[in-house]
User: Fold these one by one.
Assistant:
Number 1:
Amino acid sequence: MRKFISITLFVLSGLFVASCTDNSGVRPEPIQEEWSIVLHGGAGGKSEMPAEDEEIFKIFLNEALVEGKTILENGGSALDAVQATVIYLEDCPLFNAGKGAVMTSDKRHELDACIMDGSNLMAGAVAGLTDVKNPIKAARLVMEKTPHVLLIGEGASHFAKEQGLEIVPNSYFTTEGRVKEIEKLLSERKQGSPMGTVGCVAIDKNGNIAAATSTGGMAGKKWGRVGDVPIVGASTIAHNGVVGVSSTGHGELWIRQSVAHDIYALMEYKGMTLKEAVHEVLWNKIDKMEGGTGGGVICIDATGDIVMDFTTKIMFRAWAKSSGDTGAAVNRTNPEEKKI
Amino acid sequence: MRKFISITLFVLSGLFVASCTDNSGVRPEPIQEEWSIVLHGGAGGKSEMPAEDEEIFKIFLNEALVEGKTILENGGSALDAVQATVIYLEDCPLFNAGKGAVMTSDKRHELDACIMDGSNLMAGAVAGLTDVKNPIKAARLVMEKTPHVLLIGEGASHFAKEQGLEIVPNSYFTTEGRVKEIEKLLSERKQGSPMGTVGCVAIDKNGNIAAATSTGGMAGKKWGRVGDVPIVGASTIAHNGVVGVSSTGHGELWIRQSVAHDIYALMEYKGMTLKEAVHEVLWNKIDKMEGGTGGGVICIDATGDIVMDFTTKIMFRAWAKSSGDTGAAVNRTNPEEKKI
């Protein structure tokens, strides 16, 4: 991943500040009510990122943040905010979702996404998409236009086409970095670490919580492997009055522990704070499981408090609150964070 | 479903007592240690089943029960017991899993299954299988032979073939009753109720809990719709020391509420008994959600206590404990059951 970052950043940094930014509209004054938003662009790594690379990544993370933050400032819904943010991250080739997704063992892309609305516990998800430009849009339409939660494979693509979503050739998702990555993995007969999933959680001025997650999954995956991303309760959850969660990491661990629902349940049934619940699940459960490469979560509770935590070396993340607290980071900013 | 049952029972009852039963071996004396097993063959219906039909169904439910019970009596594992029981139910054309599965809107079969081992929280699942005779065997192999939890579609089939599982043409799963059902649904432009999923939960003499679920999903489903069955934490869970759950019902509700993990969490974090937790989730959550057709769960706690509850009129079920308590039922046996 480090090599990919280094190669890609030089090529893409100029391009993306231009192409992923929409500064055309005049933004009205923010409404003075409370909201919060947090996003991630994946977690992983065996070492911290050099400061100069981190600074470049923060440009993109902040760009993505603006997408959702603007909606919340203007009184829009958490649901629209998380979707807009994830669309930016899907379109940005630096992350493992949409354009720039990792490749399967047969050098294709299979994409998963999930979205949940905490106001009514409605949810939509897709798995194994190969030709829908923005899987998170398909997930949203599954939630709103069908009686279902999860559609997979060709059927999900047919639905997306019926709904008029933009269809692209599978090669649209490919980047030079991902081709090099898969060729290296195949030559070493390995699977990659599941790094780079994207997600967003928000609470809007009405107290509605939403969460969304999108991914290309695990580089070198085969047999139609699906991770935690399209699994409500594993990667993603939103329950008004309690918490919203989006995850990134070793999906199999997340499924086996129902991580997102477990954080919800520890708060709702055991009375833990968000920070305590996240610590319990990430450090006392996930980090102690054998064979995993860990990962991270981003969460917002009903008061708008944000928790971002990860068992890996880095997690791409950015956040903003109506109070003015905002930022972006890749490396761990507080070495004591895990020792609550 | 009533018509299908009536038509099918006359034709199949004699046949199945013969073909699904394996009485060839001499069973050794049971080991005198505690175990429990419970199975379901789906829940649904708008009215109770006539007593004479119920009696015939109980023959098959008891036959399925013998498969798992024998393993537990002889000191086998809960994992082997739930798998053997589900294989019987998949092979039996009366239930919506394996042979006899419902048909999709294009008159095919797409099968899902999940298995979980409470001793180590390992799990395996498959979704959208079209040609593997016993999807539960594929789920077990995903758990034991891959680093993954969930495989879908063609990839899952390729894996099953690599593992040497029996492959069948899609038409193998078709029964006359299912053809009539889908033709009626298509002519009325409806989807069927998701009735007939099968599942089993067991605790063995070592205190290990396992759970397994298998289904053809919702009759008339389209767009690659997948319900709760392959979703760990939605339909199925097994955590030693707490609970095992297998579900049947309107899968979308189960996914949105993470039903199986919610029952676990209410017991583990809120100190509820199994009966209280099931009541809370089924009657205070699922039954109050709009647009759903309900369903049921079968559960075993760490002491071997069994709870079977359902918000529908009927649930096909059977149970046995080392204490000698055993039985099978379709209609509700205790009208006060829901008023804990």
Number 2:
Amino acid sequence: MSHNTFGHLFRVTTFGESHGPALGCVVDGCPPGLALTAEEIQAELDRRRPGQSRFTTQRREPDAVKILSGVFQDERMAAQVTTGTPIALVIENVDQRSKDYSEIRDSYRPGHADFAYDVKYGVRDYRGGGRSSARETAARVAAGAIARKVVPGMVVRGALVQIGPHAIDRAAWDWEEVSRNPFFCPDAKAAALWADYLDGIRKSGSSVGAVVEIVAEGVPPGLGAPIYGKLDAELAGALMSINAVKGVEIGEGFAAAALTGEENADEMRPGNAGAPTFLSNRAGGVLGGISTGQPVVARFAVKPTSSILTPRASVTRQNGETDVLTKGRHDPCVGIRAVPVGEAMVACVLADHYLRHRGQVGAVRDWPLERPFG
Amino acid sequence: MSHNTFGHLFRVTTFGESHGPALGCVVDGCPPGLALTAEEIQAELDRRRPGQSRFTTQRREPDAVKILSGVFQDERMAAQVTTGTPIALVIENVDQRSKDYSEIRDSYRPGHADFAYDVKYGVRDYRGGGRSSARETAARVAAGAIARKVVPGMVVRGALVQIGPHAIDRAAWDWEEVSRNPFFCPDAKAAALWADYLDGIRKSGSSVGAVVEIVAEGVPPGLGAPIYGKLDAELAGALMSINAVKGVEIGEGFAAAALTGEENADEMRPGNAGAPTFLSNRAGGVLGGISTGQPVVARFAVKPTSSILTPRASVTRQNGETDVLTKGRHDPCVGIRAVPVGEAMVACVLADHYLRHRGQVGAVRDWPLERPFG
Amino acid sequence: MSHNTFGHLFRVTTFGESHGPALGCVVDGCPPGLALTAEEIQAELDRRRPGQSRFTTQRREPDAVKILSGVFQDERMAAQVTTGTPIALVIENVDQRSKDYSEIRDSYRPGHADFAYDVKYGVRDYRGGGRSSARETAARVAAGAIARKVVPGMVVRGALVQIGPHAIDRAAWDWEEVSRNPFFCPDAKAAALWADYLDGIRKSGSSVGAVVEIVAEGVPPGLGAPIYGKLDAELAGALMSINAVKGVEIGEGFAAAALTGEENADEMRPGNAGAPTFLSNRAGGVLGGISTGQPVVARFAVKPTSSILTPRASVTRQNGETDVLTKGRHDPCVGIRAVPVGEAMVACVLADHYLRHRGQVGAVRDWPLERPFG
Amino acid sequence: MSHNTFGHLFRVTTFGESHGPALGCVVDGCPPGLALTAEEIQAELDRRRPGQSRFTTQRREPDAVKILSGVFQDERMAAQVTTGTPIALVIENVDQRSKDYSEIRDSYRPGHADFAYDVKYGVRDYRGGGRSSARETAARVAAGAIARKVVPGMVVRGALVQIGPHAIDRAAWDWEEVSRNPFFCPDAKAAALWADYLDGIRKSGSSVGAVVEIVAEGVPPGLGAPIYGKLDAELAGALMSINAVKGVEIGEGFAAAALTGEENADEMRPGNAGAPTFLSNRAGGVLGGISTGQPVVARFAVKPTSSILTPRASVTRQNGETDVLTKGRHDPCVGIRAVPVGEAMVACVLADHYLRHRGQVGAVRDWPLERPFG
């Protein structure tokens, strides 16, 4: 599939520019009969919505979602449900500030997609970044809200684990803490430190990078497939497709390079329910591209926003010399709002693989395995 | 596309198990008229071939490739060329040692795909790892040899930059050095140190991880596309699909998380040929998912082989307790032979995006850009 | 691609139900820089719009299209153009009559998709046929209006060539006539006869089938590809996907079965412009799945609408016995409005193949062919 | 998917030229645990094999298939089974007669793909038709042999129902007869008449067209999906992709155009097993793109082979005037051997849709339908 679609059986196609009339997505392949309301999707969108603290862009977008198709309820039905047909979701843009864009119309913000879009397409909607704006991720979060319903029992959560050079103390990880601070931070002490640090960044008109960690629990074993359908390969592609992401890890990730085989092996012992118990999860829940039943753990690095107040050397569309600085409303750390986006992408990939597994193999396999075929 | 195919216009489908009769691939969508011989493909395969030093598995496989279709030459033609039809490549397995596999038939190597394949499919070809064996990567290298010919002027090279805890000195990087040592190491001093270190690992029956870096030069600007067709997203997916890979980075990668916007911006100045010159390449040649014309730089982390001599706790297929150790021929550092594999994957993704760009946009754009459409 | 998307580089995803808030599509992969306005799309939609004569459904839908994304114009540009990003089009439903659907809620119109949707999904939006309504084809026509712009010089036209048992006189074919009667009929005499015939059908509450012919001129040679990417195979799939279509032909079609090789061969002679001239076009412009440069000719058969006034034997959802008849607004010959839909599908398939050919091969080949590669 | 692959979850990629070393396919996505031997595949290939009567080409190809991957059996297993990994099949070409091809190297057989391949690719393997040869269909038949095993209880059979102007008497249809004559003809009298007729065609060096009918019984209801994933749309595409096919029908097909809604409706009554019984099958087992549980009935028209002894006007590659006639071994009616090919394509499409349905919906639905979701 090319361009603006991802997934195979659970397929998401997104559209929309930052300052166009609307953005949205079409979710195709969602199983029928899942209860689904606009309010549930809205709840996820609200977690990503800008302007909720001083640490994100002050653009005021309600991000109100409308469902245009794919759900149905009549007077005899207890709930609105999906029908198996494509679910179209639309979010209108309402706070596009009319302003003079002549400054960025013909010059390129260093580190931004401005240049690349122009060199590829020869024309671009430069207002607010156009298609390359992080506003597009609202459509992903909306799709993710549907994806979360596809795999029974699956829970996908995310957290910010590093801002600039400041990482959390993993021993202090508390999922409850994530919703108590404006950073999705699972470590209360780190959150306090980050608030001070990010105030400095924000006031100086600078920006900074971050690292996000996503954990999916309740993932059935057996999802994924050799060789290019590997679960971790598709997770990596999905997370790298988020704006500003420059690196992706599964489980130990880059740290695995420094380990020996003895250290890296996740040992197993017979478990209570007849299924094996893993004694560690360095693999991040994926072996050979296939889920093991352990939590799936992925991390991704988000680079600092390229929209900063300090002038940087650049060129114009006509190859002239210029210096560029960006005023206006921007996230000092775009990694913060990437947390619900990362959750959405992981949920979509897992929903897709769940349906693909059910298609090829029929069902999640029971344990212990019988000797088949003989 | 699902399972065992990757790419959209330049499409590669691989097949084969470690101890089956043969493995190979079908390359579909290769442009017609490219000169191509089996010898050229063989040359790439020989770089990945096992048994070339004491630091890789001692399995003796000639990895001799045959072209079954998709090329043609008659008596009036100066060279054998591609015809635009699918190119099927087959590599026979010749050194599958017949032995008793009863030990691993019903128990799982910790950290290996054994468990995951069984829980997914209920049956697996356990001989030599079956489909999950790194032997599959020979097919990727063969496909990559064709991909290298698709983008005019493109050169894709790779190097090992870390083994276990020992990274190279990047200041000492010398591409010439890569072919002079058994590690694809661009730093002669590091290579010497690695030889000692890896001898220790090898003799103890252990294994260790590594980091590989791939650099593609001569990549035209404009390749890639929003949003799920991003060049970096597809590179990440392709590299993460290589056996044992646990992390992928583009450009600065995870280090970008600790940078400010000022530090991360790749400044630009008008260049000689009418096109802009970048003053740095923290982006790794990709902005907004689209190539900038700078070298594309990707790194990936390879975990240590799970086949080690030290017993590890595990379970049997019947959920019984067991300890597993692996005798036999294995790579102490599977990351070494991953270098040509990584090159091949990067070449395939770039070839695919080159054709997709040519399809959607028509041609690589000239610089400076004209004001279009008005 | 599955479900609700078609095309590979020029990709169309449609959504929407007959009585939901809206229907529409996302066109992904359209080349940048094509002039495009909502008015141009509207002009095509108006050709398909219901209620324009007494021979189509009296549902009053303006079918007003809005472009939500993928186009741009600023004050320096002479026209609004495509940007290469996805083009989302939305058409609101405004004339869904609120009525009691309890009759068809739990029983199935024979010959209609009611039964099949229920047995597949277990739930369906039965109002007005839901997703299976021919209203979905408005989205196709809108996408087709964009597709028509992709291939330079291509013109796609259609005509109705048979209603019920009454075929046109092919010798009387006049393209000018097509827009002069309410049937898209190229034969004035036949149109007059059809008006009488169809009045009878309409007044009796019956319906009747039809045959549509689509002709695409200016199709460059070389579009299409072996084996499942054959141009005629994808045309057949695209046309058969239109509501109520039961047969598809290319060129001579089923009549070719009765011909000998001598009769069927389209002989060739050297032409004026250096390219060969075909002396006939029994092939319908496609040989070996690849366009020859001759007009591409396709025909498809449309069955009679299943919504009729005469009661037919059926069952209820609970497997009870019932008889079904359909009151309300319906097309007595749904084949009439299928003409612009067929044109749209042919235009989309040709646009897609044009981009795919440009991607794989680079450009349409000049003639006479040089001896390549030596 | 493009070019040489078809299917989505059950995916077939074919390769190979008529006079290259081998042809074959990779079947990806086949469920694990299906008993499968090379002998079973061979049995299907033998039905399509040339040279079995005087009415097919006298090329002597054993069409011996080898399985290179994707199956496994050990000493404890009662049968060789599929493992869920890609199944590669190879058939070597052994009877490529070495001869002088200079006649067709630079001139085009009217009605053949020679011209189209040259104009598309600029180079072609002209020996025996290269990639456009009907030999490619051997790979399809091999894949179909696997597809037949995927849907429990499904039986796919085909028959030749017309040769030239001579159709069978449908009242005389006897499936047993199909294997008793060299035409796959279900009507003994017609078979006798055809033998005489085709002897005349054959001796005069001419060729003739045919119509093939495929019937799939035991197809569960619910397979297929709106809108471009319609079962009949994908059947049409698959059948039109077979060499020389120019038309495809489902159920009544083109005859439906002449029917009224009353005539065309397949009435239903409550059936014995709780499921409805259809009183007719004009729909050919598909409504709204979804299978109804009735037999799926498809027909396709095959044009006469373009290789004939009578000279036809043509051009050379250099646009010179020439006349072309074809000596050598060819099928006087290529439609005969298209019967097992059509069966294979139908089996593959149904297998794919079965897996896709299982993926999206979970399972074939029980009857009578419960009121879901409340």
